[in-house]
Design a protein that fits this description.
GO terms for molecular function: serine-type endopeptidase activity. The chain is mainly β. The protein has helices at about 65-70, 190-195, 215-220, 315-325, and strands spanning about 5, 20, 50, 70-75, 95, 110-115, 120-125, 130-140, 145-150, 165-170, 180-190, 205, 225, 235-240, 250-255, 260, 270, 280-285, 295, 300, 305-310. It is built from 4 helices and 21 strands. The longest helix has 11 residues, at about 315-325. The termini are far apart.
């Protein structure tokens, strides 16, 4: 029997029973993608969809405080087209990582408010003439200007890519201490852009510099890792906006990952009650915001309370990261 998923965008009244989308410490010693074992990938083109955002569709001055307040959760964009029993295995290769970092919360499904983290923020974008909001994170990259979020926050899955996508790091109560970073290129796995396969619900945005300094130089950038063991313990971050949250402050959850109980995806779930708007927020291995990122808030089931699911980062998502980060 198919269970419905609920996207976690910004204002959904549903908990993470459907697809989720959402949105510290400066990272140190960030490594380039070239230092990642297996980062030189020659077969990635079939797995990666790339969109160069025309200048006329970039954020510019579009995102006023009023438009940010009016943006709705990106979760409403997720298409539930997963058929039970038709889920394939997510390809996994050699474990790879960029820049280990350190860590610190407690195991509980209840999200707790924390102070803004410089490299974690909100992602605003437009699709089909409607404004949406998710969460995202700055990650280590050769170009030093790469943001990761949920796939449904950059592409309809399947369908069009977003326009006017902008990243607002360390957002809190309308404040944008590091400004707005407009996307010039968007990347997502073809498994997402062509068929909306929720097991690949991850997207990347290359953003433009505001002042001549790169994003990572300005706010820091998390290390990333792929093809890790399943069942790890994570700290997840995001900006949930549906009650009891309002999307104005950063929240975090902590817990150990378990498989999708319905087998409708290769994603894993952790104890977490974050709601719409948290889509795309990072999952850090261990405790604290300085860990290696290894997934994003993606979806929840409406009949499984207090559980957030995130895609397994295998070789396909690694390929997408390498393409974007270069």
């Amino acid at each position: 029997m198919m269970r419905s998923k609920v996207k976690v965008g910004a204002l959904s009244a549903l908990l993470i029973g459907t697809l989720v989308g959402a949105g510290g410490f400066l990272s140190t010693g960030a490594a380039s993608a070239a230092s990642v074992p297996g980062a030189v990938i020659t077969s990635s083109s079939a797995d990666v969809d790339h969109w160069v955002v025309p200048q006329t569709q970039q954020g510019g001055d579009y995102w006023t405080p009023e438009r940010m307040q009016g943006a709705i959760p990106g979760e409403v964009l997720v298409q539930d087209n997963i058929v039970a029993g038709a889920i394939g295995t997510v390809a996994a290769g050699a474990t790879s990582l960029v820049a280990p970092q350190e860590a610190d919360p407690e195991q509980s499904p209840t999200a707790s408010r924390i102070s803004p983290v410089s490299h974690i923020g909100k992602v605003f974008f437009t699709l089909g003439g409607t404004d949406y909001v998710c969460s995202g994170n700055s990650v280590s990259a050769v170009n030093e200007n790469t943001v990761v979020t949920a796939g449904h926050c950059v592409n309809e899955g399947p369908g069009a890519f977003a326009s006017r996508l902008t990243f607002v790091p360390a957002y809190e109560n309308g404040s944008a201490p590091f400004g707005q970073w407009n996307a010039t290129e968007l990347y997502a796995p073809t498994q997402w852009t062509n068929s909306g396969d929720i097991s690949y619900d991850t997207g990347f945005a290359v953003v433009s510099s505001l002042t001549g300094m790169s994003l990572s130089d300005t706010v820091g950038a998390s290390g990333v890792t792929f093809n890790q063991s399943r069942g790890l313990t994570y700290t997840a971050y995001g900006y949930p906006a549906a009650a009891p949250f309002d999307g104005e402050t950063l929240q975090s959850c902590y817990g150990t990952a378990t498989p999708d109980p319905y087998g409708q995806s290769q994603s894993q779930g952790i104890p977490c009650n974050m709601t719409g708007g948290s889509s795309g927020g990072p999952w850090m291995i261990g405790s604290g915001s300085t860990g290696l990122q290894n997934s994003v808030n993606s979806f929840g089931y409406n009949n499984i309370a207090d559980t957030m699911f995130g895609p397994y980062w295998g070789s396909v998502i690694e390929n997408t990261y390498v393409a974007a980060s270069a």
